[in-house]
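agent> step 3/5: call structure_predict on target 'L-threonine dehydratase' (Halomonas cupida).
agent> reason: downstream docking stage needs a structural representation; sequence fetched in step 2, passing through unchanged.
tool.input:
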Amino acid sequence: MLEATVKKILQARVYDAARETPISPAPMLSRRFNNQILIKREDLQPVHSFKIRGAYNKMAQLSDEQKSRGVIAASAGNHAQGLAMAARQMGVKAIIVMPRITPEIKVAAVRGWGARVILKGDAFAAAAEHAEELVKEHGYTYIPPFDDIDVVAGQGTVAMEILRQHSGPIDAVFVPVGGGGLIAGMAAYIKYLRPDIKVIGVESEDSACLKAALKAGKRVVLDQVGVFAEGVAVAQIGKVPFKLCRDLVDDVITVNTDEMCAAVKDIFDDTRAVSETSGALSLAGLKKYIQQTGVENQTLICVNSGANTNFDRLQHIAERTELGEQREAILAVTIPERPGSFKKFCRTIGKRMVTEFNYRYADADQAHIFVGIQVKPGGEDRQSVIEKLIEAGYPVEDLTDNELAKLHIRHLGGGRPQSHFDEEVYRFEFPERPGALMNFLTHLPQDWNISLFHYRNHGAAYGRVLVGMQLPNGDRSHVEEYFDEIGYRYWKESDNPAYRLFMA
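tool.output (status=ok):
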C-alpha cells in the first residue's frame, strides 16, 4: 500500500488550484528552544488551508459522468472551501451541507466560491447524514474530507514539497491530525523516501482519535469530541488513513487549549500570520516534544494547516496565551478582611506583576481573592510563589489548570447568595445558534430553578455556559439523565474549588 500511495502522490493533480507554499523560518522560536524550527505555510493557499489539495485531486479523478451529476460534501469549514473552489475551477455544480453552528465567515467564504450551501443540524453528524440523503435522492457525487486514497494523495503533496524545499537534515515533521488524511499522505511520502525522519502526529486532548486507535490497535469512536480546535474535531480516524498511520507514524502528542493558543501567538510573532487553533496545533506539539525530550540542535518542521478563524475569537485566544506559555499563575488566596491586607499580600509575592485581581467578600474575618501573577515558564516558578504564600500563612488553591476558573469565574461580577441554599452547578458547551438556550430550558423539569447563569461568546462554534440549578427536595438522582437527552456536552462543577471559594 505504501508504494501505491507514493505513486498516487507523485501523480496527484493539485497545482491547477493549489500553490506550492513556502517554508518559513521561525527565528525567535528557534533561539528560544535551541533548535532550527521551520513552518510549512499552508495558510497561504487560496482557501487558506491545505484542504484544496485533496479536494481538487479527488475531483480530478472523477469521470465526466460523475462531474455532470454535481458534487456534494458535508463540512464545517476548510474542506467545504477547498471543494467549492475546485468545483468552480472545473465548472462543476457543488453543494455543501454545513451545520447551522458554522461561523458566518466560513459560510460566506463557501458561497463566495460559488457553491450552494445548505445549513442542517447542530453538529457535523447531522450535516453528514443529510448529505447522504441528498446523494441517494439526487445522485450527487460525494467527496469525502479525508477517508479516501485520492484525497490522502493530494494532501501528501505537502510532504513532497517539504523534502524538495529543504534538502538538508530533517529530524522530525509534526502534522496536525483530525480525520488523518494529511498525516497519512505526508507519512507515506516521507517514510518511503526518508525513513530516518520522524513523523509525529499532534492532536487536541479532547479529540485524540488517532492516539486512541493506535492504543486499541483498531479504529475507535470517541464518546465526546471537543470543539475548540474545530478543524480537527473528529470522533474517529478515517479507515484509509489508519491503514497507513498505524505503520508509519512514529508518535502522537496531545496538547490542550492553552498550548494551542500560545502556539497561535508564536506563529504570529515569527511570521505575522494569524493561524486558526487547529492550524497551530502541530507547533504546539513540536514545543511539547522539545520540552519532553530535551532535544537541541535539531531541525524540526511543523505544518500551519490553516488560517480560517473568526476575528472575534482572537480575544479569547489572547487571554489563554499566557497560561499556555505557563507565564501566568491563577491562584485563589484567602486573606484577612481588614485594611492593609492586599498591600501585605503584594509585599509577600515580591516584585512580580499582578495580572489580575478579583475580590469576593466571604465574611467579616476573611476575603477570597482571585489573582493572576506573572511567573517564569516551566512551572517551577509558579510552585515557588505558592510555597512562599503558604509559608506566609495564606491558604492557597492553584487554579491555573482549572477550566471553570479560566472560562467563567474570572469574569463573573455577581455576589454570593444572602443565605445558604442547595445548588448544583454544571458547565456546558452550547451550540452557537438561535434556539440553543430555549432547547436547554425546554428539557428541564418545570420545578427546577435557575440560580446562576454565565455565558461568554468566544467566536467559536460552541459557547461556554455555566449554570446553577436549585432542585426540588434535593433530588439529584436523575439530573444528568435530562442533560443526556439534550445532547450538549457537560461537566459537573458543584465541588470545583473555584466555585466553592467565589460563588457558593
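agent> step 4/5: record observation. The mean pLDDT is 87.
agent> proceeding.
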